Automatic annotation (TrEMBL), chain A:
<dbReference type="GO" id="GO:0017004">
    <property type="term" value="P:cytochrome complex assembly"/>
</dbReference>
<feature type="domain" description="Cytochrome c-type biogenesis protein CcmF C-terminal">
    <location>
        <begin position="316"/>
        <end position="626"/>
    </location>
</feature>
<feature type="transmembrane region" description="Helical">
    <location>
        <begin position="40"/>
        <end position="62"/>
    </location>
</feature>
<feature type="transmembrane region" description="Helical">
    <location>
        <begin position="478"/>
        <end position="503"/>
    </location>
</feature>
<feature type="transmembrane region" description="Helical">
    <location>
        <begin position="314"/>
        <end position="336"/>
    </location>
</feature>
<feature type="transmembrane region" description="Helical">
    <location>
        <begin position="250"/>
        <end position="267"/>
    </location>
</feature>
<feature type="transmembrane region" description="Helical">
    <location>
        <begin position="123"/>
        <end position="144"/>
    </location>
</feature>
<dbReference type="Pfam" id="PF16327">
    <property type="entry name" value="CcmF_C"/>
</dbReference>
<dbReference type="InterPro" id="IPR003567">
    <property type="entry name" value="Cyt_c_biogenesis"/>
</dbReference>
<dbReference type="GO" id="GO:0015232">
    <property type="term" value="F:heme transmembrane transporter activity"/>
</dbReference>
<comment type="similarity">
    <text>Belongs to the CcmF/CycK/Ccl1/NrfE/CcsA family.</text>
</comment>
<feature type="transmembrane region" description="Helical">
    <location>
        <begin position="178"/>
        <end position="198"/>
    </location>
</feature>
<feature type="transmembrane region" description="Helical">
    <location>
        <begin position="210"/>
        <end position="230"/>
    </location>
</feature>
<feature type="transmembrane region" description="Helical">
    <location>
        <begin position="357"/>
        <end position="381"/>
    </location>
</feature>
<keyword id="KW-1003">Cell membrane</keyword>
<feature type="transmembrane region" description="Helical">
    <location>
        <begin position="393"/>
        <end position="413"/>
    </location>
</feature>
<dbReference type="InterPro" id="IPR003568">
    <property type="entry name" value="Cyt_c_biogenesis_CcmF"/>
</dbReference>
């Protein structure tokens, strides 16, 4: 009954999306927007709620372990812990696509409910475009990925959830990333709406900005959380692998970061009109492309999702329709959009343009690196593109971007004197130089990128708080605080990355119980191995004692065996100290009493994710600042 | 901006679309094989790791008849399973050189004391650099090198007991 209700809700939501498109088109072409505006808004809200009902039905089915539903039988198990029954609803292809479209529908509803400032025709066109995107995904679910399909012969119990995904990280990682992707879809819809009505200007930018900011915060959190999840769950000791699926989430983030900065120029100074529209289209293209790459399985990745070329073809067709359509509209219309305001190269706007160029180049590098294996395979050459390419190609550009990030916020809007810069930058340059000298004297040899990374991180950290100097801190707007915190976060994260690259020590050993080895400043002893049992897994657990300067840490890495489905995973044990993490992984026995152990000492590695969290916090402050100001302006 | 330039993004997208569409309908082979089979060994020089056992460079492996190059680690368990087969190959007269991946001298010495020592030379590859240059993606892997220093074959994974005779035959054929 619940499954049928969920399916019915999906069909109704699809019909509402169709109605929303028809009403918007009719209003813009024939009846006039005044006649349809209210009903388009209402339909958008109801459509979002209906999609939410479908998602709720699916979660309920997983909660009840209704094994007559194919998706539940294939991905769940009655003995699974409660939380993973809920998150299991989106730990699979169909459920995750339903979550995607639910968030999409809710976002459309929120635009309809909250947006009051944009010209009514542009808003109607925006909601029409948003419904167009939703309709495509409803069709995808209904025709190629029905999450509510029943089984004729329900099995006694389900097949279980991939143990790698039985982790609190999964509960939040996909929904967070999807919220980001969907936020970009709203920005895309705004861009399409503005192109349809040729209304690209400051109002469009300030309507779009909170959505871009929101999407960007979620993407930042999603990437940060995903990186930490891969770090502790996969047991490889790395935090970023340049894996295609990671790149699929990084590319929209890069585009969204560029968009975030260009939309500020458009909203504040009415410049960069065409470029901002283009970026809004590109940012959503990248999230669609990411979804496609992940779901179609054309790239080999550690993220082994169930794949099916038919589904890939469906998403590809949607991609062609939306992105091709939007770019064609861009070609047709943008020539008729009035040019925005002009500005001096040495100005805040100039800095933001340079930021956009560098981010676009990095985006291009990541895109080419991700797709190159596909192109090569077309010519019969088999290869993979990994860290050596990405680090060498994107690393130096990223460092240039860091330098720019230190300078940009110190520039004035519209026009500035290049001659005044050295004075403003004196402190950060001195800090950078000092850090560089200290590292060269005391820490060599470390690689060039880590050396430059650490020096620049120090300079950036100082430069990023300079915009607060000689300001009344209590009257400083929240969005300025946001910028400061986010830029500081990048510096912190960069410092963590550089420390990890420069100072990590690694040890691979096979030890007998009672034997010890050294890693970094620690002496690690294997005290023994004991079995442990839990609800749906059993494990062999190593007892490790790590000693440094008299302080003793105990770590318990496990080799876990799950019963449904039968899988073995390594559960790393990580001890976090103020100055880094000791990371331990238990391997296999050698049959002669020895146990394989993999140990890392990673100084200051936690800064990577702390920085990511700061970046997201900065975004949240900026978003709050913008919303408060809009509210005040609306009241006035 | 001129009119044709406004259509460039669409053209770029069309290219992207074509690439992924072709890839979607013509999935590629996914086995990881070394691209270097049939090619000369890349140049490398690795220091020694164990006392009394010299390091390894390309020059040590050319002009002295065909030989095996075994990639291993003392921390690698399939390598223990492989050890008896390597000892048999050594007894049959096949020279074996080795590269130890991310390892330490004492650990390798203990490994050889426990499992037997079939190696002539052992190179120390701390960061898997030479391993990757050879197109090897894991341990153990073994390459057959001919007298001219060309890579003739790659054996991915441990050499099992039933493979020993065919490896010896491959080695004879490379004479």
């Amino acid at each position: 009954m619940i499954a049928e209700a969920g399916l019915a809700a999906l069909w109704i939501a699809a019909a509402l999306a169709l109605l929303q498109i028809a009403l918007a088109a009719l209003g813009l072409r024939r009846l006039g927007v005044a006649a349809v505006g209210g009903s388009v808004r209402a339909v958008a809200i109801v459509q979002g709620v209906t999609a939410l009902l479908a998602m709720a039905a699916l979660i309920l089915l997983f909660q009840q372990s209704d094994m007559s539903v194919k998706l539940v039988a294939e991905n769940s198990h009655s003995a699974k812990p409660w939380l993973y029954k809920v998150t299991g609803a989106w730990g699979n292809h169909e459920g995750s696509m339903l979550l995607w479209v639910t968030i999409l529908g809710l976002a459309g509803g929120a635009v309809a409910l909250a947006e009051r400032r944009l010209a009514e025709p542009t808003l109607v066109a925006t909601l029409g475009a948003q419904a167009g995107i939703a309709l495509g995904f409803y069709a995808f679910l209904l025709f190629a990925s029905n999450p509510f399909a029943r089984l004729a012969e329900p099995p006694a119990d389900g097949a279980g959830l991939n143990p790698l995904l039985q982790d609190p990280g999964l509960a939040f990682h996909p929904p967070t990333l999807y919220a980001g992707y969907v936020g970009l879809s709203v920005a895309f819809s705004f861009a399409v709406g503005a192109l349809v009505t040729r209304d690209v200007g400051r109002d469009f930018a300030s309507a779009m900005r909170p959505w871009v900011l929101g999407a960007w915060i979620f993407l930042t959190l999603g990437i940060t959380a995903g990186s930490y999840w891969a770090y502790y769950e996969l047991g490889w000791g790395g935090w970023w692998f340049w894996d295609p699926v990671e790149n699929a989430s990084l590319m929209p983030w890069l585009a969204a970061t560029a968009l975030l900065h260009s939309v500020t120029v458009l909203a504040t100074r009415d410049g960069l009109r065409a470029w901002t529209v283009m970026l809004a289209v590109v940012a959503f293209s990248m999230s669609m492309l990411g979804t496609f790459l992940v779901r179609s399985g054309i790239l080999t990745s550690v993220h082994a999702f169930a794949v099916d070329p038919r589904r890939g073809a469906f998403i590809l067709v949607l991609l062609a329709l939306y992105i091709g359509g939007a770019l064609a509209l861009f070609g047709l219309r943008i020539g008729t959009v009035r040019q925005g305001r002009i500005f001096d190269p040495v100005s805040r706007e100039g800095g933001l343009v340079a930021n956009n160029l560098l981010l676009s180049v990095i985006l291009g590098v990541v895109l080419i690196g991700t797709l190159y294996p596909i192109v090569a395979a077309g010519f019969g050459v088999q290869l993979s593109v990994g860290p050596p390419f990405f680090n060498k190609a994107a690393g130096p550009i990223a460092l240039a971007l860091i330098v720019l990030m230190a300078i940009g916020p110190l520039l004035r809007w519209r026009r500035d004197e290049a001659g005044l810069l050295p004075e403003r930058l004196m402190v950060p340059v001195a800090v950078s130089g000092g850090a560089f000298a200290l590292l060269v004297v005391f820490a060599m040899p470390i690689g060039v990128l880590p050396l430059l990374g650490l020096s620049l991180a120090a300079g950036l950290a100082v430069a990023s708080v300079l915009p607060l100097v000689r300001r009344n801190l209590r009257r400083t707007p929240l969005f300025v605080w946001g910028m400061v915190v986010a830029h500081l976060g990048i510096g912190v994260s960069l410092a963590g990355m550089a420390c990890d690259a420069a100072f990590t020590s690694e040890r691979l050993v096979a030890l007998l119980p009672g034997e010890a080895t050294r890693v970094g400043p620690f002496r690690v002893t294997l005290d023994g191995i004991a079995p442990v049992v839990d609800e749906n897994w059993s494990a062999l657990q190593a007892q490790l004692t790590a000693e440094r300067d008299g302080a003793v840490l105990r770590l318990r890495p496990q080799s876990r065996t799950f019963t449904d489905p039968p899988t073995t995973t390594s559960e790393s044990a990580i001890a976090t100290r103020l100055d880094g993490q000791l990371y331990t992984v238990l391997g296999k026995p050698d049959g002669q009493g020895r146990w394989q152990l993999r140990l890392w000492w990673k100084p200051f590695v936690t800064l990577i994710w702390l920085g990511g969290a700061l970046v997201a916090l900065g975004g949240a402050l900026a978003l709050a600042g913008r919303l408060v100001r809009r509210r005040r302006e609306a009241m006035a | 901006m001129t009119r044709p330039r406004l259509w460039m993004p669409l053209a770029g997208f069309a290219l992207l679309f074509a690439i992924v569409a072709v890839a979607l309908f013509r999935p590629a082979d996914r086995t990881v094989r070394s691209q270097l089979v049939g090619q000369p060994l890349p140049a490398f020089t690795l220091p020694a790791l164990v006392p009394g056992k010299p390091g390894l460079s390309r020059e040590d492996m050319t002009g002295q008849g065909p030989r095996l190059l075994n990639i291993f680690g003392s921390w690698c368990l399939p390598c223990i399973a492989e050890a008896p087969q390597l000892m048999r190959l050594r007894a049959a007269g096949v020279p074996i050189d080795a590269i130890a991946i991310r390892d330490t001298g004492p650990a390798v010495a203990a490994f050889l004391a426990r499992n037997g020592d079939p190696y002539r030379r052992i190179g120390d590859d701390q960061r898997s650099a030479v391993q990757l240059a050879l197109g090897s993606s894991g341990v153990p892997e073994t390459f057959l090198i001919d007298a001219q220093g060309r890579i003739v074959r790659q054996y991915v994974g441990d050499i099992r007991a039933d493979q020993v005779d065919s490896v010896i035959a491959d080695w004879r054929a490379a004479q």
